[in-house]
Amino acid sequence: MSSEPCECKKWYMKVPHTFTILFLLIVLCAVATHFLPAGEFQRVENPATGKMAVVAGTYHHVDPSPVSFFNTFIAVQKGMVDAAAISFFVFLSYASFYTVLKTGGLHAFIGWLLRVMKGKEIVIIPVFMYVFGLAGAIFGMFEETFGFIPLFVGLAIAMGYDAIVGMCMVVVGVGIGFSAAFLNPFTVGLAQKFAEIPLFSGMGFRIASWFVFMTFSVIWVLLYARKVKKDPTKSYVYGVDMGALKLDNEELMNSKFHPRDISIMLLVVLFVALLVWGVIKRGWYFDELAGLFVIMGILCAAVAGWGPDKIAESYVEGFRDIVFGAMVIGLSRGILIVMREGNIIDTVIYGLSLPLASFPAWFSAQGMLFVQTIVSFFIPSGSGMAATTMPIMAPLADLLGFTRQTAVLAFQYGDGFSNIFFPTTLCPVICSIAKVPLEKWWKFFTPLFLALYLLQMIFIGLAVSMGYQ
């Protein structure tokens, strides 16, 4: 008998496949529709925001609609269809950047950047994290940064780090900035309107909290980056095929930045600027952004001298490369489909809010933070969550003895930080674009998420103790 140790892991020691995790969540939610009472709030249009908002105190039971065994499986298909706009956005945006990368223009730019920063590459990490963090805090930028992800993943790998570090430069930077924002009109502004308090009031406290959250996250990422550079096997994505996003450092260092490459890079910069302008000034979203990326990919390929067939082949390769990630998005949407069809989303919100009235102000405020964090799993839209929870939480804060400003802070934290963690949010989209398996991202980000939650609790405690206005 061989004495060699078995390399196979026992089933209970393995991290389940992403599809397995998401389907189990669909099943659990379907089971919950058989036990939780179906119910809903009345909703009316809020004149201050123009959005449909929950009317506090109007929760009522409706006819039960438990999701059957067969409909649980149908939810997979319905989730794919419901998330089609996002999934096809991922297909088109990734394939467009894949095409730009194949032209070599971005590779030449990264090579130039590496030569300029030789020996000081690590400085790039905090600089860009703070830049993206400010964009999230001031403009509410989030989805607009998705186009940067492939570039920074390639840059991080070329610098001797890994895809997670590249992903963090963009996603953790903008995600933390968005979550702890001081001017974000899509979360802070909207929630304050629903709470009927002065727009963008309490900014000093928010700026302080933004700086603390950002600095803590930057340090966390830097420590991980140094560990990976010292020993690549410590990377959570060690051995994962990054496809076209993986760039060779030596090849990049020897590359030349030709006029054609400069033209391609300028086109990318122009289209990113157009993207930011379109989102902020014209309200563009996934459809418009996808169209913009397609134009960018075709123009960059044309500048590189490619013909139509070669461009088409490149897009097919890009689609093939990202198909797994795009399917994750549809599967995760199946969770929300089941809860929506079972009419239990409002039931969960109502049930979570009830216990808050039984505790002292300091404890209830922490409970409100917890409730808002859980609710963000079921309502991944910040504006949708504000319209659903703030009409309940703002008057509840009056009864519990802490300020409405603190209730807004609890909403802001609860909604924001989960955007790069929960599978029902944009997290699967981000992982798909970065080609980082969802379970690998969770392995890296879960400890940081928990540490950030403790920081949130501290700031909520401070807000209660100082009567934050």
Automatic annotation (TrEMBL):
Keyword Transcription regulation: no
Coiled-coil ranges (or none): none
Keywords noted in UniProt: Cell membrane, Membrane, Transmembrane, Transmembrane helix
UniProt membrane topology term: Multi-pass membrane protein
Localization, UniProt: Cell membrane
Top-level division of the source organism's lineage: Bacteria
A GO-annotated cellular component: plasma membrane
Membrane-crossing segments per the record: 19-37, 83-101, 122-139, 145-161, 168-187, 207-225, 262-280, 286-307, 319-339, 420-438, 450-468
PANTHER family, per the entry: BASIC AMINO ACID ANTIPORTER YFCC-RELATED
Record-given protein name: C4-dicarboxylate anaerobic carrier
